[in-house]
């Protein structure tokens, strides 16, 4: 007697992507060799691509196009052992092929793409498709992008490439031209809140901070910096405390988190100075309006530029404490100058 495979946990597309899913499902037999999923960060593009990969590999696909979750292929995929599936994620980039500029951060390297080139030339183990999921198409280094382009220009038979990108403009134009783009929408505010309620308690303020992107709000909650976030916002609302003593208490706060919070605050402050509505801090509208009445728009833009110029340092700052202090002094200086004037 043969045991029935246990049901595997397979990804499903999120509710606000149902229409996009249905459109692809109706064209299942006529899909191109490469799809490029695009849209805002934090809306579920990775989950959509993973669900599509599972569906393409599933041996008993449901009528709605979802993977069954109990066939051999689904179980292999859930265990990370499916021989016809490759996931390409981010890796720390090193200088390659004589590249002199060692950029900090995470990238998809040429080594990963070379390994992929060998995989796509193999025969399928299950007589079906081989599927490649490339998680960050906008994070290919130059050598990796050119190597991938060669594969996309002459795609092997029965290989499906699923690319995902938060920043479409950073994807090599020739790669974009070899893919069919799938623009995935963000959810309506109420839909996002309803979904987050099913995932656990996530405050509305975090969904606002995430710009309405529910998976980003969920990540904020999981990172556990809500206490520090509240302190930062309180200080931005009333920047009286001296920055050096303030930063001393944030020794464990990741620099990218502070950069995100301050950048979004400055964005909202600029919006309010132009009679707009705050996007990320709507609950702080009164404080933003009070500050906007005293603000010099050009000085605000210069402050935002100071913060944004430090973006390349976020993943490998020489001194995170000094960078934080620079941002806070620049911001505090806005109001001291106005008071002195």
UniProtKB/TrEMBL annotation:
Keyword terms of this UniProt record: DNA replication, DNA-directed DNA polymerase, Nucleotidyltransferase, Transferase
Entry-linked InterPro entries: DNA_pol_HolB, DNA_pol_III_delta_C, DNA_Rep/Repair_Clamp_Loader, P-loop_NTPase
Entry keyword annotation includes Nucleotidyltransferase: yes
One Pfam family, short name: DNA_pol3_delta2
Gene3D superfamilies associated with the record: P-loop containing nucleotide triphosphate hydrolases
Gene Ontology molecular function: 3'-5' exonuclease activity; DNA binding; DNA-directed DNA polymerase activity
EC number annotated for this UniProt entry: 2.7.7.7
GO cellular component: DNA polymerase III complex
Record-annotated DNA polymerase III delta subunit C-terminal domain positions: 233-330
Domain of life: Bacteria
Catalytic activity: DNA(n) + a 2'-deoxyribonucleoside 5'-triphosphate = DNA(n+1) + diphosphate
Single GO BP term: DNA-templated DNA replication
Protein name: DNA polymerase III subunit delta'
Source organism (scientific name): Leeia aquatica
Gene name per UniProt: holB
